[in-house]
Amino acid sequence: MDWGNVTAEDLMDALREVDWSSPPRPLSEFFSRFTVPRSYAKWNSRLKCNLYYYRTNYFILIIFILGLGFLRRPVALVAAFMTALSIAFLNDSFAGTFSEKVTRSVRQFSPHLAAKMRPPLTPVLRGRPSAKRAIYICGRPRWVFLSIFSTVSFILWFVSCGLLTVLWALAIGLLAAISHASFRTPNLKARLNTFREEFRAVWRNYSEL
Fold first, then answer.
1. Would you say 51 and 183 are in contact if contact means Cβ atoms under 8 Å apart?
2. Of residues 95, 84, 48, the one with CA closest to residue 170
3. How confident is the model at residue 206 (pLDDT cuts 50, 70, 90)?
4. Which family does it belong to (predicted)?
5. Computed over its alpha carbons, how large is the radius of gyration of the chain?
6. Among 39, 141, 160, 181, which one is most buried in terms of CB atoms within 10 A?
7. What is the pLDDT at residue 175?
8. pTM, whole model, 2 decimals?
9. Is 55 helix (H, G, I), strand (E, B) or coil?
10. What whole-number distance in Å separates Cα of residue 91 and Cα of residue 146?
């Protein structure tokens, strides 16, 4: 797969649809080999490949730096958690996993309430869904949870006055992730993982025909 031909929009769509439950890469692999890219095209391709392959490591790195910045601002830490959760709900895999785990936990003490949290059935016409499958969280459309968590996080940001802190911490975290992705040489595992994801995308498109 030629990452140089992958646009930023394609990369964001892939990160939105991919499964984020995979464990992070080992530190021995994460800090293995660093080289300077020879050209802009090489850097562009390497950056996109590493951002996709080490996505879990970068997410943990940014969360860790944000946590260090919020040691003296607990309310801002809660606001950052709510904001991160709102952003995570944009990922289809995370939204589905979150809804499933919450529904399973509720079913233990209230099966009737858990039945109401099931997503509605998508109508099927001639063996195909009538429309693109909508994402539901605990039986409600995803935008409901996004609105609630975004509003609560905005109020907490306003109360804590810690927006400047999170901007500095977020900038440092993003700079660290981009710097690592720019100089970390893609290994064979990253290339094989790329080919596997490309095959899955092609197979998914084939199965929809």
1. no
2. 84
3. very low
4. Belongs to the PRA1 family.
5. 20
6. 181
7. 94
8. 0.55
9. helix
10. 12
